[in-house]
Specification:
The chain has eight helices and no strands. By secondary structure, it is mainly alpha-helical.
Length: 248
């Protein structure tokens, strides 16, 4: 009986995940077509560069957070006190990294705009993106806890809702604001993802109720560093290479 229940649950998750993949695939094709029609070749290139840049910053600020947190969560899920230490270490360490990155992006926003767009006309978009970097980390932190808690169905639902909202907002901004709207939509998408995840977190406080200590464990920091160092190189090199190719 138990085996049958587990199989049914697994089947439902896999079916939902298939729907999520299909929705993402269709929306990606339609979005690309819309960008091509409304923005043209140059617009696609500039938007692509900003997406690469935002992806690079996002991966840099959250590198290793999912794999490392899931590993440590599974190994210590029966020890509430130890989990509090783990969560506190992740929260404060990655929040600090995100704040530093946010300040750097904000400070060098004019140079970044010239590098990506060959003009300073989009500095405001970079300002907006810089402010949202800590929210990206918090969103990744929540999703990692969901992952460690094996709440895969919730993660898939969040992805589906997030992708649909991002598509609709992107479509509206491109049609009404052209390239500027398209670039803003890249930053807005992160805010939308955070909002959707926050909505579910508020309903599932059981998984997120822990004693957030004002300390960082050296032991767990070293484990995080090992996971992050593996992901960091590809997180920077691949997007940066694509941006340089477009610039050339």
């Amino acid at each position: 009986m138990l085996k049958k229940i587990v199989q049914n649950s697994l089947f439902k998750v896999l079916s939902l995940n298939s729907i999520s993949v299909m929705v993402s695939f269709v929306l990606a094709i339609v979005s690309t077509k819309i960008v091509a029609v409304f923005l043209g070749t140059q617009g696609m290139a500039l938007l692509g560069s900003f997406r690469n840049f935002s992806g690079m910053i996002k991966l840099t600020s959250t590198a290793g957070i999912n794999n490392a947190l899931v590993k440590l969560y599974v190994e210590n899920k029966s020890e509430k006190k130890e989990l509090s230490v783990i969560f506190s270490t992740f929260f404060w360490l990655f929040l600090g990294i995100s704040i530093v990155l946010s300040i750097l992006v904000f400070t060098f926003s004019h140079s970044i705009s010239r590098f990506l767009f060959f003009t300073e006309a989009y500095v405001s978009c970079i300002y907006f993106f810089a402010v949202l970097i800590p929210l990206m980390v918090l969103n990744a932190f929540w999703l990692a806890i969901y992952n460690g808690s094996e709440q895969f169905k919730k993660i898939v639902i969040i992805q589906i809702i997030g992708n649909l909202l991002i598509f609709l907002v992107t479509l509206y901004l491109i049609i009404n604001e052209s390239l500027f709207g398209a670039i803003v939509s890249v930053a807005v998408s992160e805010l939308l993802l955070f909002g959707v995840t926050f909505f579910f977190v508020r309903r599932d406080l059981y998984y997120f109720t822990f004693n957030l200590q004002k300390s960082i464990s050296k032991k767990y920091s070293l484990i995080i560093f090992k996971f992050s160092s593996m992901a960091l190189l590809s997180a920077i090199i691949a997007p940066l290479t694509l941006i340089l190719i477009r610039n050339l």
